[in-house]
Design brief:
Distance between the termini: 39 Å
Bound molecules: flavin-adenine dinucleotide, iron/sulfur cluster
Number of helices: 5
Number of strands: 10
Radius of gyration: 24 Å
Strand order of the largest sheet: 1-6-7-8-5
Shape: globular
Oligomer: single chain
Structural class: alpha+beta
Order of helices and strands: HEHEEEHEEEHEEEH
């Protein structure tokens, strides 16, 4: 029960789902929507795990703009706020804090029988047994854990007989564009804090035209909250005049964050270095990564 705000838009590259009511576009985003529509580019309400109405015993967003710092009311989905309280209520849940998984241990049949953990507070080591284990330490640490789980049966790490664990590491190329919307510059300041970005431009370069790159990119609009004038440090001057300039421009501020897909390549990978260990003696992850020509072409 995550609770995702959004709208059904019928965009091929962005399949629809079941949503809570969408976030309302701010004036600046509405201007972008109308302008982009003239170019055949869609601007749609963003889809994200922020509650626009009470849901699953959590309150609706109060648009304070602090999403990136942690939500004070739990309107943005997170495991500590949303899932752990429910798990506790079942009576079948035990949280073991301060445990760092070192390696997964297998039995003679090659099945995982236990996880070896270090207690980061006491430095004690222990083995925890279970019927089922889920590896969910995020991208790099999950690969690290599997690669460090070596045994005579799995000398290259667990689940790695094809040498794929840790490979195809990829993410996004990003670029920020800041602009000012003439219609809003100098207008009366209003509370625009919102829940960071309220609108989204899905990938639109799917038109059959030949380009120098494969893949595409999307934009998130206004994902810098308004309470801080991020553009100020790009402006020249100081003192009263400088502050006035920041205030005049602030209502017209438009931030567009572009995210382009980086190609997944086997050479880009997480490995482990048995000769270099962390404070608990666990081999550290080593990242091998290089952007390829297509990544550069897409970016530029
Ligand atoms: C600044 C930032 C902004 C982001 N914004 C967005 C966004 O707007 N939208 C979006 O969709 N995604 C966003 N993401 C990405 C998103 O947060 C991640 O993709 C997602 O949280 C990954 O979930 P996960 O469960 O795989 O890993 P995580 O949420 O990272 O959880 C992994 C957990 O495993 C623990 N762990 C790691 N190693 C071990 C170990 N050896 N033993 C025990 N525990 C371990 C970690 O402490 C952590 O608690 C953002 C990420 C960042 C960093
Ligand atoms: S704006 Fe973000 S931090 Fe503030 S209530 Fe809404 S979801 Fe939570």
């Amino acid at each position: 029960m995550i609770g995702v705000a959004g709208s059904r838009e019928g965009v091929d590259v962005l399949p629809d789902g079941e949503y809570l009511p969408p976030l309302k576009l701010r004036c600046s985003e509405e201007i972008m929507r109308r302008t982009c529509a003239k170019m055949g580019i869609r601007v749609i309400p963003t889809r994200k795990a922020v509650l626009t109405q009470p849901y699953d015993d959590r309150p609706a967003c109060h648009y304070c703009g602090h999403c990136m710092k942690g939500c004070d009311v739990g309107a943005i989905f997170s495991v500590p706020n949303s899932m752990i309280p429910k798990a506790r209520k079942t009576g079948n849940f035990t949280l073991l804090p301060n445990r760092l998984a070192r390696e997964l241990l297998v039995d003679t049949e090659g099945k995982v029988r236990a996880v070896s953990v270090a207690d980061t507070a006491t430095r004690q080591e222990e083995e925890i047994r279970a019927r089922v284990f889920a590896v969910c330490c995020a991208t790099i640490e999950s690969a690290r854990l599997l690669l460090n789980s070596r045994s005579p049966r799995y000398p290259d790490g667990l689940a790695n007989s094809n040498d794929v664990v840790g490979r195809y590491l990829h993410g996004h190329n990003t670029a920020d564009i800041f602009a000012y919307l003439e219609d809003l510059v100098g207008t009366r300041p209003v509370n625009n804090d919102g829940a960071t970005d309220h609108s989204y431009i899905p990938r639109f370069n799917i038109d059959g035209k030949k380009r120098d790159y494969a893949g595409g990119y999307h934009y998130q609009l206004q994902d810098y909250s308004f309470m801080t004038p991020y553009h100020a440090h790009y402006l020249k001057g100081f003192g009263k005049k400088f502050k006035e300039q920041v205030r005049i421009l602030q209502p017209g501020f438009m931030a567009m964050d572009c995210y382009a897909k980086v190609l997944a390549q086997p050479e880009n990978r997480v490995a482990v270095d048995p000769k270099r260990v962390d404070a608990y003696g666990i081999p550290i992850p080593v990242i091998h990564f290089r952007f390829c020509d297509n990544d550069h072409a897409l970016y530029y």
